[in-house]
Amino acid sequence: MPMDKFGVLVGDLLKRLDSAFTELRAINDPGKITVTRVSPVELQIKVAKTGTYRVYCDSAASDSQYLYLQSPLSGIYNYKYDEDNQQWKSETQVHIIEELLMREFITFTKGTLNL
């Protein structure tokens, strides 16, 4: 896939996640969730008493085209964009990035992610 298309797909996902986590933050206790756009290719979600989630890509590795999710609960996953299904899919486990985030966040926050 051309790098410019990859960049757009990463940007679109981070924008959706930023919006969903900002919405989730509003219905939880103050200070429970902090959402920070660290760079155009990285989003951090800090959760009190749980840890920090990072969703990012390595923009220096121009040929890799991987997106990463670092979870304080389950570790680090890498995702490739599946153009046929229009989803970010894990190459090592059978799941999509939104599925893992929803599954983990439902256990320690009020409400669900609106993805």
Q: Can you describe what's shown?
A:
This protein is α+β, with helices and mostly antiparallel strands and 115 residues long. The chain has one domain (3-105): Frataxin/CyaY (Metal Transport, Frataxin, Chain A), CATH 3.30.920.10. The chain has helices spanning 3-26, 97-105, and strands at residues 33-39, 42-47, 51-57, 67-71, 75-82, 87-90. The chain has a 6-stranded antiparallel sheet, covered by helices on one side. Strand 4 and strand 5 form a beta hairpin. The radius of gyration is 14 Å and the shape is globular. The mean pLDDT is 91.
Outline the secondary-structure elements.
Layout: H1 3-26, E1 33-39, E2 42-47, E3 51-57, E4 67-71, E5 75-82, E6 87-90, H2 97-105
Antiparallel strand pairs: 1-2, 2-3, 3-4, 4-5, 5-6
CATH fold-level assignment: Metal Transport, Frataxin, Chain A
Assembly of the depicted chains? single chain
Could you tell me the mean pLDDT?
A: 91
Spatial extent as radius of gyration: 14 Å
Give the strand order of the largest sheet, numbering strands 1, 2, ... along the chain.
1-2-3-4-5-6
Distance between the termini: 24 Å
The CATH architecture term is: 2-Layer Sandwich
Identify the CATH homologous superfamily.
Answer: Frataxin/CyaY
The total count of strands amounts to 6
- Topology as H/E string? HEEEEEEH
Helix content: 25-40%
Shape: globular
| Largest sheet report | 6 strands, antiparallel
Structural class: alpha+beta
CATH top level is: Alpha Beta
What is the total domain count? 1
Uncertain residue ranges:
none
Give the number of helices: 2
How much β-strand is present in the residues? 25-35%
